[in-house]
Amino acid sequence: MAQNIYDNPAFFAGYSQLPRQVLGLDGAPEWPAIRAMLPDLRDKRVVDLGCGFGWASRWMREQGAASVLGLDLSQNMIERARRDTPDPAIEYRIADLDDLQLPPAAFDLAYSALTFHYVEDFARLIATLVQSLAPGGHLVFTIEHPIYMAAAKPDWLRDADGRLTWPVNGYSEEGERRTDWFAKGVLKHHRTLATTLNTLIEAGLRIDRIDEFAPTAAQIAALPALAEELERPMMLLVSAQR
């Protein structure tokens, strides 16, 4: 079973105050780039993996999706999503992506935001998703960029111009990585960029687009702290099709 850090009270309290949890999709600077990768959602059957508070699930229904199944390991997340969602075409369930089972050809879109790096057996999950997609179905997901995950944040340095440098520790050494983020010992699973993309290819998916998210000048002007994200890629965005 995956680590359920989101039901840790201290973690959940801190996480709930992040701009993307207070403001929803408007608080996620990468959202415009993700939105550009999504297919036409009209009449689509969607599974939202790691749905959190349900922001994306509700947005997809607003765009015309026929149904959305939101899955999350956290009871706290699912309870909040259910409270905030009056739409009967959206169903939320507690599910562990490490042993997820889905019916065949049940969805037209599998979507996930910043969740797959918590999954230990990525190849198994992708195989499960591929068989659950109808022919021509799409997979769109974001993860922490492998370079970002491998960066040793406590060792941030500044060069002679005052710019942050990002030492990368053991990039080629895949496996467990632990970090202190709202709670001690948050468990994630590091995979190289090559492993991530080759897993999709080997499962029979066609990669349509990848994006290593960086904030725009307008976003930095509105929120100067985002300038730090120009120093190294923080997120990897991927769109693929069965």
**CATH homolog superfamily:** Vaccinia Virus protein VP39
Whole-number mean pLDDT: 87
Number of strands: 11
Here the CATH topology equals Rossmann fold
Radius of gyration: 18 Å
Largest sheet features = 7 strands, mixed
Order of helices and strands: HHHEHEHEEHEHEEEEHEHE
Compute the separation of the termini in Å.
28 Å
Structural class: alpha/beta
Strand order of the largest sheet: 3-2-1-4-5-11-10
CATH architecture field: 3-Layer(aba) Sandwich
Unreliable residue runs: none
So what's the overall shape? globular
Describe the structure.
- It is built from nine helices and eleven strands.
- With 242 residues, it is α/β, with parallel strands linked by helices.
- It has one domain: Rossmann fold (3-Layer(aba) Sandwich).
- β6 (157-158) and β7 form a beta hairpin.
Keywords:
242 residues, alpha/beta, Rossmann fold, seven-stranded mixed beta sheet, two-stranded antiparallel sheet
Characterize this entry briefly.
The protein is α/β, with parallel strands linked by helices and 242 residues long. The chain has helices spanning 9-15, 19-22, 31-37, 55-62, 75-83, 122-132, 146-150, 193-202, 217-222; strands spanning 45-49, 67-72, 90-94, 107-113, 133-144, 157-158, 164-165, 175-179, 186-190, 206-212, 235-241.
Sequence-ordered SSE layout with sheet pairings:
Blueprint: H1 9-15, H2 19-22, H3 31-37, E1 45-49, H4 55-62, E2 67-72, H5 75-83, E3 90-94, E4 107-113, H6 122-132, E5 133-144, H7 146-150, E6 157-158, E7 164-165, E8 175-179, E9 186-190, H8 193-202, E10 206-212, H9 217-222, E11 235-241
